[in-house]
Fold this sequence. Notes:
Order of helices and strands: EEHEEEEEEHHHHH
Number of strands: 8
Pfam families: LON_substr_bdg (PF02190)
CATH superfamily of the largest domain: LON domain-like
Number of domains: 2
Helix content: 25-40%
Strand content: 25-35%
InterPro entries: Lon_prtase_N (IPR003111), Lon_prtase_N_sf (IPR046336), PUA-like_sf (IPR015947)
Largest sheet: 5 strands, mixed, barrel
Shape: elongated
CATH architecture of the largest domain: Roll
Low-confidence stretches: none
Mean pLDDT: 92
Organism: Hymenobacter tibetensis
Protein name: LON peptidase substrate-binding domain-containing protein
CATH topology of the largest domain: Archaeosine Trna-guanine Transglycosylase, Chain: A, domain 4
Amino acid sequence: MRQLALFPLNLVVFPGEKLNLHIFEPRYRQLVRDCLSEGITFGIPPFLNESVSPLGTEMRLIDVEKNYASGEMDIRTQAVGLFRVEEFYRQAPGKLYAGALVEDLVDDDHIDVVLQTRISAQLQQLYDVLGLRKLMQELPANYRIYDVAHHLGLSTEQEYQLLEAQTEAERQEIVLEHLEHILPVLLETERLKERVRLNGHFKNLTPPNF
């Protein structure tokens, strides 16, 4: 176990993700200064249901994009891994910001090719319906669930469920179940919209033979 500074937020960050943040609270301005002077990283555990979640994502400060006269900052960060909180401190020793004793989590990132094929077909339909085909075109062939997780219409709680999954195959199962649930609803909505658009137009119909 090791000490890690914490920055709880009401969002889920996935490994590899780049995150831009506007820093305004004094405690987190202190955290950024410590990242710059000491080279430390910090963790973002999602703040859900009025409490700090036991799982979080470790972040590395990439750059301070802008310093304001007020002391506020715009920063760029990148997620580097997952951790589990073993002991939470509302304030890290001698600091304004929170901290914790954490354990690093090792991820099984093996992709199930069969599940990947099924998910890709569902994603293609989803992005076609939503007019977001570009998202599919930009995906690498060996994409991971983390790469698409923010573009699936998941709630924050559902995204946290993906953090809890210990293998890529488990994450694939969760996402496939979600897509198979929402796609029929979206497709039916599109059909309904089309029927509404056609209502009142002249129709060229072929009468039935009887």
